[in-house]
Amino acid sequence: MHIDIDKDRCIGAGQCALAAPAVFTQDDDGYSTLVPGRADGAGETMVREAARACPVSAITVGPAGD
Predict the structure, then answer these.
(1) Residue ranges, the chain, pLDDT below 70
(2) What is d(CA 59, CA 39) in angstroms, rounded to the nearest whole number?
(3) CA 39 to CA 52: how far, in whole Å?
């Protein structure tokens, strides 16, 4: 799985971190970032739900290698 966060689009709503806290967190400015070592989602079932929960669609999830 490949996870991409559009930093220009992210508004820091934090819905991703609430949906999948093992994969997403917020940086010092409040914007979404990936938990170190979890950039591939590591089998977390809520990653796609976290992407859907983003109010500005800043997160895309696709197959590994995309």
Answers:
(1) 42, 66
(2) 12
(3) 17
Tell me what pLDDT residue 37 has: 87
Q: pTM score > 0.90 for this model?
A: no
The answer to whether 13 and 22 have CB atoms below 8 angstroms apart is no
Contact 20, 50 (CB under 8 A): yes
Q: Is the distance from CB of 65 to CB of 34 less than 8 angstroms?
A: no
CB contact at 8 A, 24 and 33 = yes
Could you tell me the two tokens for 57?
Answer: 């669609």
Cα separation of 52 and 58, whole Å?
A: 9
Rounded distance between C-alpha atoms, residue 27 and residue 44, angstroms: 20
